[in-house]
Amino acid sequence: MTRKKLLLAALAALLLVLTPVALFLNFYLPSQMVLTIEDTYERRVDNTPNDTTDNNWRDVYYISTVDEKGKVHVFRNEDTGWGFPWYFKFNSADVRATAATLKNNKQKAVVRYYGWRINMLSMFPNATSVRPDHGGMLIPWFNIAFFSLIFGVFAWIAVFFRRRGKRSTAPGAEALNA
């Protein structure tokens, strides 16, 4: 195999590994948008559509918003509880009340959320917090800290193996290992 083919194969393999990781992180890491809240409402949703037993439903809050360009965004506002993803969100009623207050005051809001809007699956991003917009730039502090930590771990691993490799190839290393 030529060097060029080997490089292309390695690049393709790397792309196959990194694409799902990038999609996973894009879905679950928090994002923020400055929006105008148009409506907040509640909808009763079946937990399992094929189950006919009573009380097999839950109430889900929704927040309808519009961005500065006029595009409509709808967010689900549901508690994550103790399960994955670990946002430990237990305050969906408070988030809904904040959104309703901002709507009534006609204030712009910063909505923090995770997830994607997929129309075909009736899937909405989940709002984790809503707060008044005070202007200024939105800085994704959690994402910066998360990627800094990941980079630090990979750098530490690289340095660890590089030092380990130098130690084993040093002159006289065979005598020490014996």
Describe the overall structure.
With 178 residues, the protein is of the alpha+beta class. The protein folds into two domains: 110 residues, OB fold (Dihydrolipoamide Acetyltransferase, E2P); 30 residues. Helices cover 40% and strands 26% of the residues. It contains four helices and five strands, in the order H-E-E-E-H-E-E-H-H. The chain has a five-stranded antiparallel beta sheet. A hairpin with a 5-residue loop joins strand 2 and strand 3.
Keywords:
5 strands, five-stranded antiparallel sheet, 26% strand, 4 helices, 178 residues, OB fold (Dihydrolipoamide Acetyltransferase, E2P), 40% helix, elongated, single chain, alpha+beta
Could you report the average pLDDT, rounded to the nearest whole number? 88
Decide which structural class fits the backbone.
alpha+beta
Helix content: 40-55%
Unreliable spans: none
User: Helical stretch count?
Assistant: 4
Topology:
Layout: H1 3-28, E1 31-46, E2 57-66, E3 72-77, H2 92-104, E4 108-114, E5 126-132, H3 141-168, H4 173-177
